[in-house]
């Protein structure tokens, strides 16, 4: 993959004025992504339309235009907009200007201070994430900031509150209108970066380990991408239970850090067969496998399960190779995915499950989980590890950092413009779109370039 | 199905002498059942050879012949032997005579007082249970009795101990040699019938609810065959957790009993659509489904799961219709079984698992679970419900009682001969084998005859 991208240039915000136009980038009712092809023509690995979602959490709207009567001085804000599916350059920094939004009942206006970058956004940019409304759309599923206005019927939030906010999309902008139910008060000692890093990674890890699986003392867990956002969250949560053994796969350079973080046995999956490595240490296998990779890795994970063990599939990172959608990688992941009948499961005493936070609509579960997580944070039992923070104009570098497997922990995006004196530091490489990205043996071909540490 | 069996006659034990012959009915290393056809020719629903069993628990041997040197006075005992696959008449009462067995290290000789009948034995008689060695073989997977002799290296059991004993097969005989590890001391207040009823039903229910699933306060559980052995065990175990809602399917005549036993919502699956009934009460569905039926019921159970819920498939009772193997019922169950890929699981946030006690080889898990269960028994939190007890010569009636869906709780077999004065009570119907048992619409065609209450 090295060499396929052109030099990075720092993004200059595009001015975009639409004071009267109705918002088009996002709306409260997210649509199915229209850009993905039919499942017949192309494996629908991550793009198959959801079957059973009753009430998807609302996407964050860019602040809706005010009714003419309520018109005040216009609001101008920076936003990272996905303009189409493809390479890094499809995510553009735009400056939007519109009338001050009139909040609906139950909504709050948040001045966003920090946003989380998730692997899902790499997928979404390639057109592989079915829960993002079709482009043009402001991306971003989580962030933190300060409440700037509250709508009617919002009694438990007030102007000035520091909150974490969660949405289907639209958090990557300087101001965002979100449902008050999807905001959570931040503890005083929590930084905005930590707040933006907590929600998706820790909720995902927590629900998998404690709601779906039944993590108890003495169990063993295989965590893939153990140095990533979810991986570090899962490792920390494993430490809250006595005597849990963690096998963690990650690129070799990250092993020291993840060992300090609680991984019992780090494994370099890029140079070693992790199944063999685990069998050497634990011939009987493991109790829980968290699988964000999909494809043949799900089969391997299943084979590693001890009786009464569970594998949870919660991602298809194997679909991502080059910068843009790779049909071959998708097909491979799709066709190699584990498919099972129940008789086989009976004879092996194993459990297979799937997890996707985006399809969970149980508000009680969300708030219960968040309050547990905030409690654990206050007790010092969990603490998001920030890998790096990039200003909006550096979004390409942020995405590259994750795509090129450099990050240890969370990659953060900051809406605030970069100060002049900081600027020279990061005029590295740009998101130029190169056609030739059909990397089949993805892991070997990627020469990871350390842009930033 | 009514009318397909001839009149029952009480079995007269067949005398069988084989003092020198090596035991043929069972051996310590159970073989794969050879009577089942190839998976290609016939759906291998419950007869597929196991893939991953390392050390199957030893079958109980009929007491092995002593070495000539150790010969003492010969032992004569009654045993229920499966002589071939088919109808009720394939299980024959035989009297065996052989030299007093010489125990190997770690073994004990048990004088069996009561044995459990399990649904698996109905399957096994039809040739549908792959873990039973091929006929001729003494059946029976659980029993209780008194230790009559101990082998070397057995320190925690002594002559006179009242024990529960567990084995792959061979427990349906008056004396049995078992591994001391697979015996468990009975509390004083426990009857032999209760001892014989506890192990398989409660272990199965316990491991499913607490090891595989993660039963916690406030959850809801669907228990099929709720008036059966496992069903009643599962219902009682649900009562040990606060605020658990139990939906239980059973024939209507059993509803009063199971409601008293803790089923919150009994459902007559024979006259009503249980999916509809459950949705009426709980539109969002249930958290855990215990599925001993297989086939299309697994699909229904899956559809009923709430997000983060789990279905555990642990049987294929739908394969059983008439007295003998029914290819059509097997094919239906096989082809309708749930088969899933992991992407679908992700989008629905559900877990699918299989459970089979017979494939569990973790001795620690067995003894840990048994000691928990015995503790719960002592605390009065669980208590096996004995439906009925039959002497060995009445085995046909015992099997019929279960097959014809009459039992509420456990059916017990007693090795001891029936006393003369009891005899007139049960000369009802015999296990005559009738060809015509291809009952397709199994549930409706079965006119249940109340032979005994
Ligand atoms: N289902 C859900 O609700 C849910 C929610 C959140 C996240 N997820 C999934 O969880 C996984 C982790 O997400 P995250 O946001 O925390 O990201 P992340 O782990 O920080 O992702 C980046 C890291 O993943 C590893 N990696 C493995 N395969 C890769 C590939 N094909 N391309 C790029 N990097 C790869 C790299 O580290 P190493 O080489 O060191 O391993 C890289 O540094 C993703 O699969 C994501 O889709 C699912
Ligand atoms: N995987 C394991 O480790 C394991 C261990 C033990 C048992 N099991 C399974 O659990 C289930 C229950 O076993 P059990 O030994 O406790 O038996 P049981 O429940 O006492 O079985 C008899 C009852 O099942 C109901 N039933 C439903 N479909 C039936 C059919 N096709 N034929 C006859 N009866 C039917 C009837 O009651 P209603 O009509 O009132 O419902 C009948 O009274 C079986 O499927 C068995 O294979 C599995």
Give a structural overview.
2 copies of one chain form a homodimer. With 453 residues, chain A is an alpha/beta fold. Among the domains of chain A are: 75-195, Alpha-Beta Complex (Quinone Oxidoreductase, Chain A, domain 1); 217-313 and 315-354, Rossmann fold. Chain A has 11 helices and 18 strands. The first copy, chain A, has helices spanning 119-125, 192-212, 229-238, 255-261, 274-281, 296-304, 327-336, 342-348, 363-378, 395-403, 442-445, and strands at residues 14-17, 75-82, 91-98, 107-116, 137-138, 142-150, 162-166, 175-179, 183-185, 220-223, 245-249, 265-267, 286-291, 305-313, 339-341, 351-354, 386-391, 410-414. In chain A, the strands form 3 sheets. In chain A, strands 4, 6, 7, 8, 9, 17 and 18 form a 7-stranded mixed sheet that branches. In chain A, helix 10 (395-403) links the parallel strand 17 and strand 18. In chain A, helix 2 (192-212) crosses helix 3 and helix 2 packs across helix 9 (363-378). The longest helix of chain A is centred in the middle third of the chain and has 21 residues, at 192-212. Mean pLDDT of chain A is 82; it is low at 1-8, 17-57, 66-70 and 423-453. The complex binds NADP nicotinamide-adenine-dinucleotide phosphate (NAP) (2 copies). The site of one NADP nicotinamide-adenine-dinucleotide phosphate (NAP) has 29 residues of chain A, from helix 1, helix 2, helix 3 and helix 10.
What is the radius of gyration of chain A?
21 Å
Give the low-confidence spans of chain A: 1-8, 17-57, 66-70, 423-453
User: Biggest interface pair, residues each?
Assistant: A-B, 47 and 47 residues
* CATH topology assignment of the domain at 217-313 and 315-354 in chain A: Rossmann fold
Give the proportion of residues in helices of chain A: 10-25%
Query: Which ions, cofactors or small ligands are bound in this entry?
Result: NADP nicotinamide-adenine-dinucleotide phosphate
What is the name of the CATH class of the domain at 217-313 and 315-354 in chain A? Alpha Beta
Which CATH architecture of the domain at 217-313 and 315-354 in chain A is right? 3-Layer(aba) Sandwich
- Strand percentage of chain A lies at 15-25%
GO biological process, one term (chains A, B): negative regulation of mitochondrial fusion
GO molecular function (chains A, B): oxidoreductase activity
Protein name (chains A, B): Vesicle amine transport 1
Domain Enoyl reductase (ER) (chains A, B): 86-413
């Amino acid at each position: 993959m090295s060499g396929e991208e052109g030099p990075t240039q720092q993004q200059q915000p595009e001015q975009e004025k639409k004071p009267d136009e109705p918002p088009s980038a996002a709306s409260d009712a997210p649509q199915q992504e229209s850009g993905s092809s039919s499942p017949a023509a192309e494996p629908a690995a991550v793009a198959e339309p959801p079957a059973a979602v009753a009430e998807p959490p609302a996407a964050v709207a860019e602040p809706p235009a005010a009714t003419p009567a309520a018109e005040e001085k216009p609001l101008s804000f920076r936003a990272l907009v996905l303009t189409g599916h493809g390479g890094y350059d499809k995510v553009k920094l735009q400056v939007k200007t519109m009338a001050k939004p009139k909040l609906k009942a139950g909504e709050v206006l948040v001045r966003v201070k920090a946003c989380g970058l998730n692997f899902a956004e790499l997928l979404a940019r390639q057109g592989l994430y079915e829960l993002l409304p079709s482009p043009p759309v402001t991306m971003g599923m989580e962030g933190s900031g300060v409440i700037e206005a509250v709508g009617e019927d919002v009694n438990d939030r007030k102007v000035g509150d520091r909150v974490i906010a969660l949405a289907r999309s639209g958090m990557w902008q300087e101001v965002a209108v979100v449902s008050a139910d999807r905001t959570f008060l931040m503890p005083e000692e929590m930084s905005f970066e930590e707040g933006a890093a907590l929600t998706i990674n820790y909720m995902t890890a927590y629900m998998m380990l404690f709601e779906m699986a039944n993590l108890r003392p003495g169990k063993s867990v295989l965590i893939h991408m153990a140095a990533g956002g979810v991986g570090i969250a899962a490792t920390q949560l494993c430490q809250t239970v006595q005597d849990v053994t963690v096998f963690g796969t990650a690129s070799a350079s990250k092993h020291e850090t993840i060992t300090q973080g609680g991984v019992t046995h780090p494994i370099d999956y890029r140079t070693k067969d992790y199944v063999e490595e685990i069998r050497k240490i634990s011939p009987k296998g493991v109790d829980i496998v968290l699988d964000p990779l999909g494809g043949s890795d799900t089969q391997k994970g299943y084979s590693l399960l001890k009786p009464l063990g569970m594998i949870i599939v919660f991602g298809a990172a194997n679909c991502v190779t080059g910068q843009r959608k790779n049909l071959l990688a998708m097909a491979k992941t799709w066709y190699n995915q584990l498919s099972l009948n129940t008789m086989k499961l009976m004879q092996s005493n194993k459990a297979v499950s799937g997890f996707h936070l985006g399809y969970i609509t149980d508000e009680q579960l969300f708030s219960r989980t968040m309050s547990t997580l905030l409690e654990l944070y206050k007790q010092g039992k969990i603490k998001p590890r920030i890998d790096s923070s990039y200003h909006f104009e550096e979004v390409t570098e942020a995405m590259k950092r994750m795509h090129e497997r450099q990050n240890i922990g969370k990659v953060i995006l900051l809406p605030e413009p970069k100060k002049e004196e900081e600027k020279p530091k990061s005029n590295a490489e740009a998101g130029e779109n190169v056609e030739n990205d059909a990397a089949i043996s993805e892991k070997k071909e990627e020469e990871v370039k350390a842009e930033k540490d």
